[in-house]
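Page 42, continued from yesterday. The earlier attempt failed because a stray header line got pasted into the input along with the sequence. Redoing it now with the clean sequence only.
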Amino acid sequence: MQVDFFLMYFYFLSKSITMNQEKLEFLRRTFVNQLKALSPDTPPAFGKMNVQQMIEHMSDSIRYANGKDPQPIITPDERLGPMKAFILSEKDFRPNTPNSLMSDTPPPCRNASKDEAIAELEKEIQDFVEYFESRPGITANNPFFGALNYAEWVQGLHKHALHHLRQFSVAV
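This time it went through. Structure tokens are written below.
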């Protein structure tokens, strides 16, 4: 009976690693390519950010994960369990999900172009991977979902990327 448990555990662990790797590759390649294909003038289906502001927002989020912009956890302790369960699930963020760290008006673009914003995003993703590869077992705070390890961050960033692709009506 115990052997069956361990076989099942390792099967699910290997599936999780494979899914996590696929989500990371999505972020590195598919997501970036879909952003490159978007016209800077594509109107959002929801929200107030334009394409470039959204890309820069994603870079900001990845900086939380790659250690460049450490964040305090703002979610009360009693809500962290359900919040973490959500980020680890396959449930989508709802359109217009509020973000208390953002003002009602998006910030001005900091990069000169969409292409420069994408280059910044690609660098942040690479730095994210290197950050966790060079620090096995480390966690980084997400202000809403708590301390996340590498696999949890990949899951959350993948979910976040899908949300913003839907914002600009990109089929996911």
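Notes: DSSP finds five helices and two strands in the chain.
Reminder to self: strip header lines before submitting.
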